[in-house]
Amino acid sequence: MASATDSELGVDATPWTLLRGKASHLREILRPFIRVLRANPLTLIGFILVVIISTTALLVAIVPVISQVVLGHPVLLTPYDPNGISTDYSQAPSLKHLLGTDKLGLDIFSRVLAALPLDLAIGVGIAGFALLLGGGLGLVAGYWDKPRTLGGVISAVILRVTDVFLAFPSLVLALAIAASLGRGTGPSILAVLLTWWPYYVRLTRGEVLAVKHRPYVVAARAAGVSEVRILFRHVLRNLIEPLLVYYTLDIGTVIITFSTISFVGIGVPLDVSEWGTMVEAYEQLLLTHPWTVLAPGAAIFITVLAFSLFGDGLRDILDPRSRRTLVQAVAATTLPGQVAGAAEA
Amino acid sequence: MGRNKSDLIVFVGKRLLQLLPVVLGVIVITFFFTHVAVQNPCAVWAGAHATADQVQACILRFGLNRPLTDQFWRYLTTLLSGDWGANPRGGVPVLLSISSAFPATLELVLASLFIMTVIGIPLGVVAANGAGRWADHLVRVFYLSGWATPTYLGAVVLAIAVGPAIGLPTKGDFTTKPPFYGPTHMSVLDALWALDFPAVGDALLHLVLPASALALLNLGIATRMTRTSMLEVLPLDFVKTARMKGLSDFVVLYKHALRNSLISTVTILGITAGVLLSGTVVIETIFQWPGIGAYAYDAITGYNFPGTIAVVIVFAVAVVISNLLSDVLYGILDPRVEWR
């Protein structure tokens, strides 16, 4: 075994060359990533932004808790207490208050930063719950849909219920639920949670139907592989990519929907820092104190944009078809000389 | 199944039949959510200064002391007899409010679809034509920006900053009276009907900002769909042939390629109806547009249960019908589709 490795690597095999061998293997795996990132600088920006935003949110949420345990008092990462009223009323952005203050002297930068963990957790969490619930139901409805069996009946029920929920514009149902439950963070989370899963059922079911009659699935069944194993190893494996791409893009949509409920005044209460609530509270100040509205607005914009770019790029990387389409299109619209160049790149 | 007229009729009929259980489900869900979650709606309905006796009278009048299933059956039977109920606060019939509000919303949605088509499709063509180059990146930034801007933020900026700055109306302050009260309940058509041409101009000006705010979100979807389907068509042989014949870029792109890729764009426009309708709730509230979105907001926040359920029914039917329309349109445009 050792001699075979030696002969493959040559006699002068050192730890260094071994490492280089690993590195080139890694590069092979990362090649599609690198190619897409190179072809599309925006995807790179999206990746970087998502990393920065997630890290910041995690730190803002965790550091006070850890410092409470270690030091005995919480250390806030926001420059000021987001709910701390001060005498710096209605100040324009300055070095002291990076994004200015509102009428009560609350520091806007601190409020925007304090809202980051909440809004991001809501986007990631609600979309994640919808992915698991809707994905699970869609898997069942797509895989066991043979008529006149128990599975067939269950899938029919799932699909009918899903159709009802899909017919609602989800924002309206969420608003109705949130308004009935009364203003609060919990009720508005519940409202979005209850309305968000149906699209995942349709998406997952469609993908399952597309995959489950493919020759390799039929071949696996003919070879005596158990249904559960087929489901997990052959069908589920093919769902991960489209679902992951949709999930990433969906995080931004959830954040927007959630903040819309707050904006219309039936979501998060005014004393909690949340971006939609901030836009609602300050909207009349847009002309006189624009920073109060534009700062939370920009926070939503950048976060959603980052996840959109990230999801878009993820699609280009994971889906070989969209990669090929891009290359073909570039080839079709460039001169022969450029095509050669594009092929090399 | 084929492509005959009778196949189309069967297809449409089947889809409309499927609408019935959907509407019933929508009614059940909304009814139970509103009636279970709100503890004592009479506290709101009877007014803030109502005495305990008045609240009690209200509870008896609306039958809120009865079992929930009883209340549901009573609501359902009156609904089936054609009575949509009335706002418990003030007693305005729901059907009257809805029938005058719906056309106004339709006008707003059609105007925003027009903006989406006129701006979104050419941008998609430009992006696909320059795929992977700066024009493509620029268009991508544009449509992702539209996507990432919450509807309410765009609307607030347009209504409070942009509108006053460029002198466009941002509220329902029409110069002519009465707007939306002609035979069609659509501001532009009503003005045309009255042959009042200054009013037509005024109505059009009032449409610009709310329709743009509504279009902002879906502009990206139209652009993106056009780009994707153009990318599929552009490498095909007939496009190459057209180029080799020496036809101009414009003719190749817009006459040959776009016609083939429009099919999927049209479909997407139909599917976005639900998103547009959701958007009207926010847009109409901000721009004071007397449509069904503003009515939905008032009904939801004012615990107007019959109004809320009616709005949700109308929204659900509108979504299903526009999906159906886009399917039919797709089938008419693409001769390979069979009705089934």
Q: SSE string of chain A, helix = H, strand = E?
A: HHHHHHHHHHHHHH
CATH architecture of chain B: Orthogonal Bundle
As residue ranges, the low-confidence spans of chain B are none
Give the class of chain B from helix and strand content and strand pairing.
Answer: mainly alpha
Poorly predicted spans of chain A? 1-12, 323-345
What's the number of helices of chain A?
A: 14
Strand content of chain A: under 5%
Helix content of chain A: over 70%
Draw up the topology in text.
The complex is a heterodimer of chains A (345) and B (340).
Chain A: H1 2-9, H2 15-39, H3 41-71, H4 108-143, H5 150-167, H6 170-181, H7 185-196, H8 198-211, H9 215-222, H10 227-263, H11 275-282, H12 290-318, H13 320-332, H14 336-344
Helix pairs in contact in A: 2-3, 2-12, 3-4, 3-12, 4-5, 4-7, 4-8, 4-10, 4-12, 5-8, 6-7, 7-10, 8-10, 9-10, 10-11, 10-12, 11-12, 12-13, 13-14
Chain B: H1 5-37, H2 42-45, H3 52-61, H4 68-80, H5 94-129, H6 134-148, H7 151-166, H8 187-193, H9 197-233, H10 237-244, H11 249-271, H12 273-287, H13 292-301, H14 305-333
Helix pairs in contact in B: 1-14, 5-6, 5-9, 5-11, 6-9, 7-9, 7-12, 8-9, 9-11, 9-12, 10-11, 11-14, 12-13, 13-14
Question: What this model shows, in words?
Answer:
The complex is a heterodimer of chains A (345) and B (340). With 345 residues, chain A is mostly helical. Chain A has a domain at 120-335: MetI-like (MetI-like fold, Orthogonal Bundle). Helix content of chain A is 75%, strand content 0%. In chain A, helix 10 runs antiparallel to helix 12 and helix 11 (275-282) runs antiparallel to helix 12. Chain B has 340 residues and is mostly helical. Chain B has helices spanning 5-37, 42-45, 52-61, 68-80, 94-129, 134-148, 151-166, 187-193, 197-233, 237-244, 249-271, 273-287, 292-301, 305-333. The relative contact order of chain B is 0.15. The model of chain B has no long low-confidence stretch (mean pLDDT 83). Chains A and B meet through helix 5, helix 6, helix 10, helix 12 and helix 13 of A and helix 1, helix 6, helix 7, helix 9 and helix 12 of B.
